[in-house]
Amino acid sequence: MSKLNQHEIIPLPTDIGALANRINMSTRKEHDVVNKSVSLKFAVALRDGKIYRQGIQGFYHVFKTVEMLIQQELQSDSKSKIGGILSKFWDERVARTEPLTKDLLYFYNNDPKKFQHPIRKEQIEFVDHIIETYKEKPHILLAYCHVMYLALFAGGKIMNSKLAKATGLFPQVDGQTTEQVSKYGTNLYQFNIEDDQILRASYKRDYELATRHELTEQEKLDIIEESKEIYRRNADMIRGIEKHNREKITNKLSYKVVVYGYYIGILISTFALIFFVRRLINHLF
Ligand code: HEM
Question: Of 66, 156, 157, 228, which is most buried with the most CB atoms under 10 A?
Answer without folding.
Answer: 66
